[in-house]
Amino acid sequence: MSIITISREFGSGGREVGKRLADVLGYAYYDREIEEDIAQRMNMDVGYVTHAMRGGPHSIPLHFGRTLANPYLVKQQVDILVEKQRVLKEIAAASNCVIVGRAADVILEEYHPFKIFVYADMAYKVKRCVEHAEMGENLTPRELERAIKRVDAQRAQYHRLYADTEWGRKEAYHLCVNTTGMAIKQVVPPIADYIRCWLAQQS
Amino acid sequence: MSIITISREFGSGGREVGKRLADVLGYAYYDREIEEDIAQRMNMDVGYVTHAMRGGPHSIPLHFGRTLANPYLVKQQVDILVEKQRVLKEIAAASNCVIVGRAADVILEEYHPFKIFVYADMAYKVKRCVEHAEMGENLTPRELERAIKRVDAQRAQYHRLYADTEWGRKEAYHLCVNTTGMAIKQVVPPIADYIRCWLAQQS
Could B190 and A187 be called an inter-chain contact, meaning their C-beta atoms sit closer than 8 Å? Predict the structure, then answer.
């Protein structure tokens, strides 16, 4: 199976890159579907699962010296993370796919995914968030910038749960794409060609 | 004019990427031609110019507190660096081109070049150096690794002459390409397509 993982800065258009890549390549696409799947399997609310996966690194005492009020909740969050790994590996084994985020690049290392990192200048990310009304329309650009940094810090922290490497360090990816000023729709076909090229050289 | 700059780790195949990109796009290609041009203009030996440009950051007292034995040599090296900037700007103004190294990405900032960074895993770079007999054929893999690191450290230092940014930090480039395990010939066409796409969106 061919697996493509997309890591991305918030607001950079990484998700759109992933979605369009899946379309162009005819691959399955996974993003929020992963939390939905986990929620269904664990008979939980999808919002809770999403929150637990995002908040996991903050609230789970994975490092010594951390304490937490409710051991039941900790157990549940660990269960969710374990389930996530299982779901990701099932996805990877099932068909060619594009997976956005979820530390899939690290968790699926053994499947040799093609790893992309999508990033952009802050001004572009803020503009994009405003245009796509991500994070609510009521935030000022300065608030948006803070929110973007907060989400990316969470992603970096989440990444550290699974890897020793630094999130976003180019060495860990096959291709790093700066989308500043770019129409995502236009740039996806050459990225898809690059991936086809890479895949052909792996086999 | 459309300008493409290639920054690259030693042994990553960046020069080949540049050469082939120039071919595919029908652009002029500049690499060692720059030192040759400077040498001719300044009536100097090309080897000396190359050495001065590489060694510049080490021997020129650009930071306070440095001393140097021979003020005449310092003057000459500064003259070479000034001449280099002039040559690069002339090249940029003359025709569409691909320029490898020489801090052209920073020096030609005002021309809005498309900036690529080419990198690869150390093992791949060593293998490539052996195959292409770069740096002489008598070095062991360990010596090659040391030599690669030394050249890249020089490049990083040279970059700092012109920019506050860190050499190789992905944010300063439009596209970062990891060539590990790749046949450069195969990957250049999609990179060229990506660049065409970017150029179309700038105009």
Answer: no
The reply to whether residue B190 touches residue A193, judged by beta carbons under 8 angstroms, is: yes
**Distance in angstroms (rounded) separating the CA atoms of residues A7 and A101:** 5
Contact A117 B170 (CB under 8 A): yes
Distances (CA, A) of B39 to A193, B11, B34, B83, B86: 41, 26, 9, 10, 13
Residues of chain B found within 8 Å of residue A170, distances taken between Cβ atoms: 117, 119, 168, 170, 176, 178
pTM as predicted: 0.89
Residue with tokens 């086999």, as numbered in its chain: A203
The tokens for B100 are 């490898």
Chain B residue numbers with beta carbons less than 8 Å from the beta carbon of A183 are 201
Rounded CA-CA distance B138/B124 in Å is: 18
Can you tell me whether residue B18 is helix, strand or coil? Answer: helix
Residues with pLDDT less than 70, chain B: 54-70, 134-137
Q: At B146, list the tokens.
A: 């040391």
pLDDT at A128: 92
Choose the closest CB to A197 out of B171, B186, B201.
Answer: B186
Give dist(CA A153, CA A89) in Å, integer: 25
Number of Cβ atoms within 10 Å of the Cβ of A201: 12
- CA separation for the pair B102, B81 (Å, rounded): 10
